[in-house]
Amino acid sequence: MKWPFFAALIFTAAFAGCKRDEVKVYQISNESTSPPASNQIAPPAQNENSQPQLQFILPNGWQQIAPSQMRVASFLIANAGGSAADVGVIPLPAGEDELALVNMWRDQLQLPALTNSTAAETISVNNDSAKFFEIASEQPLIDGKFRARILVAELTRGNTSWFFKMTGEDSFVASQKDNFLQFLKSVSFVENFAPQSFPQPTAANQNANSSLNSIWTIPADWQSQPPSQFLLAEFLIQTNGATAEVNVAELAGDGGGLAANVNRWRGQLGLPPADEMEFSKTISTFEVPNGQATLVDFSGTDSKTGKPARLVGAIVPQNGQTWFYKLMGDPQIVAQQKDAFLKFIQSAKYPDAR
Question: What confidence tier does 242 reach under pLDDT thresholds 50, 70, 90?
């Protein structure tokens, strides 16, 4: 799959009229590919505390990942053959121009704009009626070989329109349509959301801002940044106007699996998922306290900035948890900082086994 195109379709820049992917650290079981988990709750959107929260049943093979700024939930679906699809949930103020939205999606697939009719079907999201749109490209837009397909359900509740969108390679999205519709039927809204209803961050996450030095030995030229909602720690490295970033996240168990996370990182650099043979050549190992870590090193194009970038990532299983470390940015800075990055990882003092 051509990942730059796929990433662009994940939700482009925004809906009409609106200007305006790290690892989830909440220990929610739907990061795995185990049988569907019921009554999962999406974390609240930042600055949207008045919005109800989502409950849903996650289909097999769907991995919940950290949502971007406009999303309240994101999911990645992939198979062993390298096909992938993205699902996002986005609340917007009700009243958006429906025809403009449909034409924006059609433009993403290089289809001509409609002039009057949007031809929406009616489906069920839980017990509410929703509009459903299905759009497929006529030309092979993905890797020059595959057509693309978009599925969108729009549900309006009060002053909010909720958009559930799946994007990816045509036949793969078509094969996931039934799962998508079943997922929509399972969605419910928790109006009086209690903070304890979803698992809280680990102690390491709660204390990361105030006691990073008790966990790692941090290089002097790394600038600590306030971590985003789904990270334990973030650092910025700047040299002569060029930048690179280091971030750290933690997940329960295997965090969704080695292959899925490595391919997620590859997607951030516009690289296609690695097949089995390529995957074995991609990874290496290095020593860390109490075991070994998996190391990857990729070069490509940053899917967000369009600039050349290099990514060095490490996956460290410790005490029933998996820690994810990523150094990404300007290729020269990443090359200069790689040794310091590895020493930073090796300096970690992990919580006791759980």
Answer: very high
